[in-house]
Amino acid sequence: MSTDRSASLRSRKTASSSAAEQTESATDTASSAAASLEKSAASQRSSSQPTQGIVPSHRLSRKTSAIDPASAAPSLGFAVASFLAVRFFSALFNNAGDCDETFNFWEPSHYLLYGFGFQTWEYSPEYSLRSYFYVLLHSAVGWLFWPFFGYNKIIVYFATKTILGCCSALCEVVFYRGVLHRFGGSVAYYTFFFMIFSPGMFIASTSYLPSSFSMYGTMLVFGYWFSGGSLNGLLATIAAAGSGLIGWPFVGVLFVPFGIDSLRKFGVLRVLTWAIVALLIWLVPSVLVDYYYYGKIVFPFMNILLYNVIEAGSHGGSTLYGTEPPFFYFLNGFLNFNLVFLLAMPSILLLLAFKKWSGTLQYLRSNIDLILYFSPMYVWLILMSCQPHKEERFLFVIYPLICLAAAASLVILLNILQALCGAFLQRTASTSFVLKLGAVVAFVVVFSFVALSFSRVISLNVNYSAPVLTYTHLYTSEFKGGKFDDIPRKGDVSVCVGKEWYRFPSNYFMPSERFHLRFLRSAFRGQLPKPFAPLPNGTSVIPKGFNRLNREEMDRYTDLQGCDYLVDMDFEGQAEPHYIKAQTTWEVIYEFPFLNSSKSHWFFRAFWIPHYIK
Predict the structure, then answer these.
(1) Helices marked H in 465-583 — which ranges?
(2) Percent of the chain whose predicted confidence (pLDDT) is above 70
(3) Minimal CA–CA distance to 3: which of 461, 614, 600?
(4) Alpha-carbon radius of gyration of the chain
(5) Helices (H), 486-565
């Protein structure tokens, strides 16, 4: 595996800057879990006829036979504790991997909290593609922790991520409970483990992105939907409205089957009433908040739909920010779910063909139900794959559905295996042998998934943490947390970035307004963000120098002579100057490894292999 130097440097005339060497590796968090199998049709009887369906209880646990893994499904309390624990680690070790997360969400939140931060063109009142209501929900977390940790913005940053993790955990519990009620203990058992240990859920659960917020909504919608009942239908409708209106409007496609099912069961009048209540709950506060900040009535969810769909032909839309091949999401799905993603793909076919072989799935009497429950994942994958512009975060909303689909597939395949073995070996093998064989297969699948997941998550943390560690070093060691007016010197301090601008973790890693991030011109020729105008009217002022065509704006750049610190990564053959070699001007004060992906094998970029890395 190849690494290159990424460094933050400081000018010898004033202060020092840090350098970071980069090593890239990927890890996935996972943990091994014993797999237990449900009774297959063949093992439940001596003939070849399928057994009667087992109707799941409304409780979180139910009485089952000794060989039915429904009894192993975690209790609600255990699920809550497990999800909270894993999401806490995600909050600490999940790096912001998207500059959109930093500049479109962390920066506006920082601006509302501390009075300064970067603004993107999407927050200009001229375009108003983003809602301040969504940002305000996250900024409220900062205000909550202000009396305790306001002096240390890095703590506020990670506290906000921790609250995001808690929100995700609670939504995951609702989803898990719905799966347990609708599909039985076996499917719930594997869904739980897949959600706990998948790298995809590890990443999405604590990311400050609308797609993560909409993922929370997806779990609530499907969790309440699976639980059944009128009240749960209302709660699911409210969650669906919030997910689309406040988070990401495109996610509404996922909820069409829920709407169809609700109309079938509850009628037009009741569903219409739910929809009106949900719209009022979300639209009224969001319109008021956006009116306060933009100074006019705006509907950001409509503007972003118009920009990306209706008006895309006239200005390029999201394709201005890059395109990917159709198979992009399938490669990405394997990275974030490995074996689970492969299991999820054929789930609906397996269920339609073999659900009668399962003791806990055959009670789903209608194939229409199965299609409504499992089709959203496929619809979303096809829809997103057809779009030229693709990003990993666009799949966040179906991550829980991938876990559910994979769990259902595994249960069906294990039942098929047990049934076939029971049929061929009924004279020479006992029922316990057949069940043990299925348990071994399940264990191998789950263990392999967990091992690959740990490897992926560790790789992401070990190989991509250099930017956060570098800026943390500046904050704590060089700037002393901003506690002293003369450290590193009196007056304003400029921290410059060139090609590494998109890895800046946000102004939460700058102690005070005295410390400024400045941009040096690099090979990047797109539009960079610029500082917000001062409060209280900074959000309603139409700033100059913004465009929606991603054209470069030259007013963003500063001269190298004005830099006190420089954060950069050094690659062989890069278009930008090798600042690290200018030792008469710059002094390296900190460096950390970061992988050079162009010189590393794809497998060792994706998964952490300790011996190979060393």
Answers:
(1) 466-473
(2) 84
(3) 600
(4) 26
(5) none
